[in-house]
Write a structure and sequence with these properties.
single chain, alpha/beta, Aldehyde Dehydrogenase, Chain A, domain 1, Aldehyde Dehydrogenase, Chain A, domain 2, 2 domains, seven-stranded mixed sheet, six-stranded mixed sheet
């Protein structure tokens, strides 16, 4: 079997490799992917550093052309790449193709942004002096991405990094090297100069640690667990480098008595269970006022009964497998914790078998939960959702905000008053009204508050805040 190698200094290198196994069928080997070493990582960082002076001063048309060519190829291959994504991550095929399409849109957007680089010229307080305010590339960017969005998240980090003239060392999650390799291969063939983009696949303890230890990275952008995010922050502070963290959430979906029941159920089911609940924006806390509570729980239970858990590539599947055995154990451990805490298991919670061996878990709904329970405070990152009964809107808002996280929040209501108040008073970076909490557009900012995020927002024009530095220059003619 061919080894998909690392890209370092413009060359494909690496013979030490590991198998990429499908969670839908553990007999399905997606491919053999290289495992980089600490020395590989150091070489990649050195290559990116050497390439930075020329790339940071490259023409905007060159950057535009490469990013646009990349967007076009990703879109043209969306079915092929979607199948690869579904195989290695377990996201059902329609969702996987949708994610690939989003990656293409992100590259297309930043291809346009390369032509829209702007600055300011303002008069000085001192007569006769001109002040120029410009943005310059940050330097070598370390990019560390998670397994749950294996092509979209790399896209929304790599595209702006290159757009604004930075060079990159990219470490994807170990579980999903296939999509990472594909996107780097496309960019490489699109004409990136040697060393501008380097791919080092491998473990976080080796490749990731070597990146954290380097003094030559101008910035690190990280999406992943809270614990690892803290390590990234501490290491970055030590080296006085810029860092950006996206670390998850325990997102609330408030359902008020006046909500349209069908709208509320569809939004809650999508938020909590689609993509197997493996989204940092998933709503794992459904906060429901008492007047609609029983009807909502009954309707949610009926909805879950209608959802099919099966192979991600199989037509008619609504929920694919959990990503791997370790994540499945974490999910089932939390289900047992929920039972022990006194929550009522209203639906699901069982590991199930299908025609192909994989990590299949029924969507799990707890009722009679309280916001103090571990299942209501800790991120499970699976298809496990708790319903919390509250008296009214005021209590619902209070419970929604009572969490260490603050990424996304939703409300189902027909009241303009409550919708407006919730948007203003929710302690989350993103708020949805009568919509799933998961799913944001590619051209608007993404990010949260509190323990969910640190640093400037990702995506859209706001990405410039992280990937550039501001320079103020004075001129006396």
């Amino acid at each position: 079997m061919t080894i998909y190698q690392n890209l370092i200094a413009g060359e494909w290198v690496g013979t030490d490799a590991s198998e990429n196994i499908s969670p839908s069928d553990t007999k399905d080997v997606v491919g053999l992917y290289a495992r980089g070493s600490a020395e590989d990582t150091k070489t990649a960082i050195a290559a990116a550093k050497a390439a930075f002076p020329a790339w940071s001063r490259s023409g905007i048309l060159e950057r535009h052309a490469i990013l646009k060519k990349t967007a076009d190829e990703i879109l043209a291959r969306k079915e092929e790449l979607g199948k690869l994504l579904a195989r290695e991550e377990g996201k059902i095929l329609p969702e996987a193709i949708g994610e690939v399409t989003r990656a293409a849109q992100i590259f297309d957007f930043f291809a346009g942004e390369a032509l829209r680089l702007t600055g300011e010229i303002v008069p000085s307080a001192r007569p006769g002096i001109t002040v120029e305010i410009t943005r310059e590339p940050l330097g070598v960017i370390g990019i560390i991405t998670p397994w749950n969005f294996p092509i979209a998240i790399p896209a929304w980090k790599i595209a702006p990094a290159l757009c604004y003239g930075n060079t990159v060392v990219f470490k994807p999650a170990e579980l999903v090297p296939g999509c990472a390799w594909a996107i780097v291969d496309i960019l490489h063939r699109a004409g990136l100069p040697k060393g501008v983009l380097n791919l080092v696949m491998g473990s976080g303890s080796v490749v990731g640690q070597a990146m954290l230890d380097s003094r030559d990275l101008g910035g690190i952008t990280f999406t992943g667990s809270t614990g690892t995010g803290k390590r990234v922050a501490l290491a970055s502070i030590e080296h006085n480098r810029k860092f950006q963290l996206e670390m998850g959430g325990k997102n609330p979906m408030v359902v008020l008595d006046d909500a349209d029941l069908n709208v509320a159920v569809e939004a809650a089911a999508n938020s909590g269970f689609f993509s197997t609940g493996q989204r940092c924006t998933a709503s794992s806390r459904l906060i429901v006022t008492e007047g609609i509570h029983d009807k909502f729980v009954a309707a949610m239970t009926d909805k879950l009964k209608s959802l099919t858990v099966d192979n991600a590539l199989k037509a008619g599947t609504h929920i694919g497998p959990v990503v791997d055995e370790r994540q499945l154990k974490q999910d089932t451990d939390y289900i047992e914790i929920g039972k022990s805490e006194g929550a009522k298991l209203a639906f699901g919670g069982e590991v199930v078998s299908r025609d192909t061996p994989g990590f299949y878990l029924q969507p799990t709904l707890f009722t009679e939960a309280t916001n103090q329970m571990r299942i209501s405070q800790e991120e499970i990152f699976g298809p496990v959702v708790s319903v919390i009964r509250v008296k009214d809107y005021d209590e619902a808002l209070s419970v929604a905000n009572d969490t260490p996280f603050g990424l996304s929040a939703g409300i189902a209501t027909t009241s303009l008053k409550h919708a407006t108040h919730f948007k203003r008073n929710s302690e989350a970076g993103m708020v949805m009204v009568n919509l799933p909490t998961a799913g944001v557009d590619f051209h608007v900012p993404f990010g949260g508050r509190k323990a969910s995020s640190f640093g400037s927002r990702e995506q859209g024009k706001y990405a410039a805040e992280f990937f550039t530095v501001v320079k103020t220059a004075y001129t006396l003619p």
